[in-house]
Amino acid sequence: MKITKIAAIGALAISIAGLSACNNMMPQKDAAMKAPMHSQSMAKMNVVQLAQSNPDFSVLVEAVQAAGLAGALSNPSAHYTVFAPTNAAFMQVLQETGMTKAQLFANKPLLTKILGYHVISGDMAMYAKDVKPGNVMTLSKDTLVVTPQGKLMDESGRTANILKTDMAATNGVVHVIDRVLLPK
Q1: What's the burial of 76, exposed, middle or buried (CB within 10 Å: 0-12/13-18/19+)?
Q2: Phi and psi for 47 in degrees, rounded to 5?
Q3: Residues in a beta bridge with 145
Q4: Any residues with CB less than 8 A from the CB of 123 and at least 6 apart, and which?
Q5: Which residues are bridge partners to 60 per DSSP?
Q6: What is the pLDDT along the chain (184 residues), one digit of tens a residue?
Q7: 80, 72 in Cβ contact below 8 A?
Q8: CA nearest 166: which of 57, 43, 75?
Q9: Around 134, how many Cα atoms within 13 Å sit in the side-chain half-sphere?
Q10: How far is CA 163 from the centre of its chain?
């Protein structure tokens, strides 16, 4: 893979921390921005099972499995905050970078860094009410910015909207985002 592709991917960092706005403060959702639906009770699932239960997270689930992170993200003692990009968000980032899904998934170090940029691990999960504008350190050890408008901004200035917040899991919380943001 060329350095330019890595830089382009780095410019598309997966958004993980801009939840300062609750759903009622988010822009009006049209049909294209509909938040994914869930088939089972989320309260009894960990963050990985929650993603697996939602067909609109199938690419995210594939990526987590390709990176070998499913076990770690299933840790029952953890308190994860996950910013989960939809399938459409993954397709958009692949188009922008000119990469195929197979190329991205084959680069395990890069994939792991990108996925880690979507996760915050702390003493407690961050629900929408807990997130304030400012910088947040992600699991990948990169900085994600929560804007005053409640968006997530990566290190290259790309932003993601939060489509749905506070999907509770046994080991954290999942927030749905519309863009894959990438660390530098």
Answers
A1: exposed
A2: -65, -35
A3: 135, 153
A4: 79
A5: none
A6: 333 333 333 323 222 223 222 333 333 333 344 444 444 455 699 999 999 999 999 999 999 999 999 999 999 999 999 999 999 999 999 999 999 999 999 999 999 999 999 999 999 999 999 888 999 999 999 999 999 999 999 998 999 999 999 999 999 999 999 999 999 8
A7: no
A8: 43
A9: 5
A10: 11
The 143-146 sheet, strands edge to edge: 134-137, 143-146, 152-153, 159-160
* Beta bridge mates, 108: none
Residue pair 49/141 in contact (Cβ under 8 Å)? The answer is no
Q: Helix (H, G, I), strand (E, B), or coil: what is residue 170?
A: coil
Structure tokens at 92: 């958009």
CA atoms within 13 A on the CB side of 129: 2
CA separation, residue 12 to residues 7, 9, 62, 64, 131 (Å): 9, 5, 19, 18, 22
120: tokens are: 């915050």
CA dihedral 42, 44, 48, 53 (to 10 degrees): -50
Tokens 């917040």 sit at which residue?
165
- Shortest CA distance to 64 belongs to which of 6, 130, 108, 125? 108
Burial of 105 (0-12, 13-18, 19+ CB in 10 A): middle
